[in-house]
Amino acid sequence: MVRQIGLRALLILIVSRSGFSKAVHVITVIIGDSPTMGYVAQSPGYDVAFSREVGLFPSPLQNVTRQTVYRPGAFSCSEAAEIIPFVAVEISNILDEHRFDFNVLISPGCSLEVMTLGDFAREWNVPLLATVAIDQSLSNVQRYPTVVTFASSEQMSLIRVMMFLLDRFSWTTIGLICEDPNLKVPDRGVFYFTACRGFRTALGGQKHKYNLNVHYFDPKIKEGDLDAYSSVLRNAATQSRVIILLITTNPRLRDFMMNAERLGMTEGDYIFIAPRSPLLPTEGMQIRNGSHRPADSAFQSLMLVYNPNPNWAALHEVLQSIRNVSEVRYNKSLTNIEMLNDITVSAFEVMTILLKVIRDLSPLDMNVQNGITFRQLFLNRTFNPLSRPVYIGPKGMRICDVHISKFNVTSGLMEVSDEYLSVAGNSVRTHALSTVWRGRDGPPVNRPFCGYTGELCLGGLAKTAVITLAVSISTALLATLAIFIAMYHCILGRSGHGSGRPWWDLQPDLLFVTPKPTAWKSLSSHGEVSTNSLGPVF
Ligand SMILES: *[C@@H]1O[C@H](CO)[C@@H](O)[C@H](O)[C@H]1NC(C)=O
Ligand SMILES: *[C@@H]1O[C@H](CO)[C@@H](O)[C@H](O)[C@H]1NC(C)=O
Ligand SMILES: *[C@@H]1O[C@H](CO)[C@@H](O)[C@H](O)[C@H]1NC(C)=O
Ligand SMILES: *[C@@H]1O[C@H](CO)[C@@H](O)[C@H](O)[C@H]1NC(C)=O
Ligand SMILES: *[C@@H]1O[C@H](CO)[C@@H](O)[C@H](O)[C@H]1NC(C)=O
Ligand SMILES: *[C@@H]1O[C@H](CO)[C@@H](O)[C@H](O)[C@H]1NC(C)=O
Asked: Which residues form the signal peptide (predicted)?
């Protein structure tokens, strides 16, 4: 052992003296065949990014090699985590073979899997780049000093923006509609399942501020089974005007909105807010069907909240290559929708960014890297792969902006109305659609004059009710006036100083590309759309 270390030190000395850079060996660790995170789904993204970068920068990347460690099978997240120690033995052997190289691990594993592998990576002092895992505990630098996460969807940012939105419009009584976690359909909607828990904890935890009512529905109800949605919606309607929808698929979200329309909930009194995993927001929602526009009015009461989608147009060639590689090397033909997979794009981003960091290192710097120092090279930095800007925060986790989309009646598309720039100092950029509300001049009120079920206005002629109504109307008017005065002062008072700007102030100087309006594609209402796939927009 001592002899090995001595030999290694000697070699490093020789290598660095002679100006040669240490070779780099990239090991991709993939457990299982999940349709989104598994071997066949993920590998083409890594392959294409690797050959693309090596093609563009052959000389600085000439000594970078790679290999994949893969366990076939269908595993749940916890099963995959249990397999990791066995895989670690294999990785350990590879690290031994490549002991004179600088080794890097990449894993598309779920959080639990990456946490287990992260413990080994710490002991080996080897960097571990995670494509999908998002658990906040991975930011614990004592336990995971070599881990960097790249997931393109970040729940914390969605929760933060949701709370900001609620505060911005003084919405405090909120309905949350989720799929029943006890009846969860395996391997579907992990994003929405964890998001439901996250929103419940975050909003429910602030009882002095928010009054949260959670409503569950059976995830096994058929999409298109309109009646099944009505009871959930009616329940929510009697308790709140602001309803958060955590719905696994776009066709089902569309069904919810169509039912809200049938129940008269889309006239402007209610607002529906739907956090989405990164995807083409309106994919499969069938807003327009020829000249018949079934969802036009329903969708005006909907806001979509999501982390930015990749720039699909810029990725056109990359996606074609991914499709080719998938077919030729992995015997899987991708449909148009499967080709537009945000998680595969994350794989492309991880590999591209890793090779960028490697080629920026001088031979001398490369030779002294270890897992801990290498991780530092990613922190507080924005990278610009073809797909979209990628910012890695000070804790080694990717931090994503958040976009809000609303329906534009003229174009018939869901278009970006607000951009929450988490990276650029938590500012907000608003667009024209931001101030457009269905059937009214401003956002829906938190609580109607007559109460959620009209209980305050019952028996319209009864004296007490009239008095109550008069009192509540004048109180409401006073309150509105007070809010106006407060806002007026707030805006006037702040306009002078830049640093004290409210979040939603326009900051046109920020360097951020405004996303183009997204196109949509109609699917039959039975077409199941994976939450990670997107419609063609080229
Ligand atoms: C790659 O390795 C070869 C042989 O060891 C060496 O001559 C060359 O300089 C290395 N290239 C880089 C970019 O480090
Ligand atoms: C479009 O609407 C027509 C009639 O309104 C209906 O028959 C047809 O099935 C719809 N198309 C789709 C794809 O849903
Ligand atoms: C994909 O394969 C087709 C047919 O084999 C080829 O014409 C095309 O150039 C390939 N595209 C890319 C981006 O590799
Ligand atoms: C490729 O996949 C098809 C099914 O999609 C299968 O029938 C065929 O045997 C596979 N070919 C190889 C070489 O694995
Ligand atoms: C990243 O920024 C934080 C503060 O935002 C700072 O404490 C930390 O040292 C920075 N890390 C690196 C590697 O630049
Ligand atoms: C809606 O779309 C139309 C046509 O694309 C565009 O001219 C208009 O500015 C959009 N409206 C808003 C409020 O963004």
From this structure: 1-23
Predicted confidence at residue 447, as pLDDT, reads 81
Least confident of 112-121, 221-230, 461-470: 461-470
User: Average pLDDT of 214-243?
Assistant: 86
Same domain, 146 and 174: no
Contact 429, 409 (CB under 8 A): no
CB atoms within 10 A of CB 486: 10
Q: Which residues, listed in sequence order, are joined to residue 107 by a DSSP beta bridge?
A: 130
Ligand 5 atom with the shortest distance to the CA of 376: 13
Q: Which of 287, 289, 524 to mutate to test the pocket of ligand 2 (most atoms within 8 A of CB)?
A: 289
SS3 call for 91: helix
| Sheet of 102-107, strands arranged across | 64-71, 24-31, 102-107, 128-130, 147-149
**pLDDT tens by residue, 443-465:** 888 887 777 777 777 654 454 55
Domain tally, the chain: 3
Per the listing, tokens 């806002």 go with 487
What would the pLDDT profile of 25-44 be if each residue is shown by its tens digit?
Answer: 999 999 999 887 899 999 99
Mean pLDDT of the chain: 80
CB 280 within 8 A of CB 537: yes
In a domain, 449, yes or no: no
Atom index in ligand 5 nearest the CA of residue 379 equals: 13
Do 261 and 331 share a domain, yes or no?
Answer: no
The residue whose CA has the least distance to atom 5 of ligand 2 is: 292
For residue 305, name the pLDDT band (cuts at 50, 70, 90): very high
* Residues 392 and 412 occupy one common structural domain: no
Measured in angstroms, how far is the CA atom of residue 408 from the centroid of ligand 6?
6
485: domain range?
A: 455-495
**Is 302 in the same domain as 165?**
yes
Q: Is the same domain home to 54 and 68?
A: yes
Q: Which one, of 441, 43, 446, 87, lies nearest residue 242 by Cα?
A: 446
Of 258, 285, 292, the residue with max ligand 2 atoms within 8 A of its CB, to mutate for a pocket test, comes to 292
pLDDT, tens digit, 9 for 90 and up, residues 316-346: 999 999 999 999 999 999 887 778 788 889 9
Q: Is the pTM of this model over 0.85?
A: no
* Same domain, residue pair 73 and 116: yes
Residue 141 and residue 160 share a domain = no
Give domain status of residue 193, yes or no: yes
Q: What is the pLDDT of residue 249?
A: 79
Burial classification of residue 467, based on how many CB atoms lie within 10 Å of its CB (0-12 exposed, 13-18 middle, 19 or more buried): exposed
524 lines ligand 2 (CB under 6 A): yes
123 in the same domain as 36: yes
Angle, vertex CA 505, rays to CA 504 and CA 510, nearest 5: 105
User: Burial level of 113, CB count in 10 A (0-12/13-18/19+)?
Assistant: buried
Q: Are 8 and 99 in contact (CB under 8 A)?
A: yes
In the chain, the amino acid numbered 506 is L
Instruction: Give the atom of ligand 6 at the shortest distance from the alpha carbon of 417.
Output: 14
